[in-house]
Model the fold of this input.
Amino acid sequence: MIMRGKCRWIALLTISAAALCAAGWPAESDLPELWPCPPFTVEGQNIVDATGRCVSPRGVNVGNKSSEDRHATWQSREHYLSLRNQGMTAVRYLIFWSAVEPEPSQYDNAYLDAVARAVEEITASGLFVILDMHQDLFSAAIPGGNGAPRWAVARQDLPHWTPDGVWSLAYFTSPRLHAAWDAFWSNEPGPDGVGLQDHFARAWQHVAARFRNMPGVIGYDLLNEPMAGSVMTGIGTLALATLSQMSFQELGLALPDLIEQSMKLGYLPREALSMLESPDAYRTLFASIEPAIHHFEQTSVAGLYERVIAGIRSVDPDRIIFLEPTALVNAGAVSGLPLPSPPLSGPVAYLPHWYDLVLDTAIACEASKKRLGMAMDSRVQEAERMGLPLLIGEWGAFYNSPSCRDAGNMMAELLARNTVGDFYWDYHRNMEESPYRSALFRPAPIAVNGRGVRVELDFGQGTFRITWQEEQADRPASLIYVPAEWAPADILVDGRRLTGELAQLPYLKIEADPDRATREVLIRRKK
Done:
């Protein structure tokens, strides 16, 4: 807790923050009153702005995976203003190693200029930006992939195969993909004799040097969904064998039947998915592969992160480093990712992804609350072990499906209760009118003058509750977003009903109260 003797320092910090916003951030008149102000940093398991308030970076993923159009994104300032005006505060923006470094040690500054223009459009609207070095299937040299430049892909002569065309299963089956990852994790030399990871770290250093002075860029997501190479065959086989053993005992479904039905359906049979709603079955499945996951993260991934962080910190000591575990943990395995070495790290936060086993299938809208709840418990456990703020870098992936409203609301409730920020995958056209818009543009804290923030959201009951421990009377007031769709609403602050101008949605401003240590805001949507 910040001691009262530091009030004068906090007041000076607030003045400095206002000056910084005026110098390099949208003018105050362009933003809702009390909007967060950069720079952001990390304090325990909180992300805080320049005034010392806890903030919630929450929004969407924005990017274009196609190298043919130079990864140019279609969104304009109008779209970003729409997001901000509906309570979102940030964007996770995709960038690509192949575009940053198309040839060894040759950086494409024209590409980074285009990224900078997009970032300026985003930040001009008042949204903050996390730059995400994205990959899927490692590189475009792998069919359906993106990320690494072609010159960084070993053994392009090897075959590529994925079952029934499901792109993500190539992580388990493609010899070409396995060889590419193996060479990368071994830091094998590229065409110029420099190690592939060394190239990657230098590319990140170049990016950080370009964006370190843009106040709306709050941090760097080092690598999207890092995956292992040839060991994935063994991990996949072990997971299937464990699942088939359980299925045979519970459902009479042997391994050949499990594989045949899964291939035919494009997802695990519903009977197997239902079985995995049992905590015992769920834990048994993921526990079988966690030793391999932990070894990979604690050696390969940790080693890469040390290299990349050292490069970034040599030019930018202040932006937040966002760490991702391997994508193998997305659906519920417990990550073993270690913290980076303290002398290198600076501010660090945790940015895993969170999906159910039905992701990218025809039954994606049937995501299970029980399975997702257990997966979220794993994410919370990992963040607490590392002592880092927990944000979810990707969730949803509903692609405008008309059947995903309930799944979206269910996931939003879990996100509100357990995280300090989240980013929906991804910004699609007409998203503001999507069937699950209530989950995206939901009540949420924007900036809170206090610590120990707790949020509860219940769409069924139509209630939103937030509590915190207030610390400083001279900080700016807390700001809470409540969608206009929730009006008319009954709003209670510390048990007292708000009326008149103070109760106007969508932004509630809660002034500091030096006589109250614990604050509570309760909003009931009138039916």
Summary: The longest helix spans residues 290-313. The chain has a mean pLDDT of 93. Residues 63-442 form a domain with the TIM Barrel fold (CATH 3.20.20.80). The longest strand covers residues 451-458.
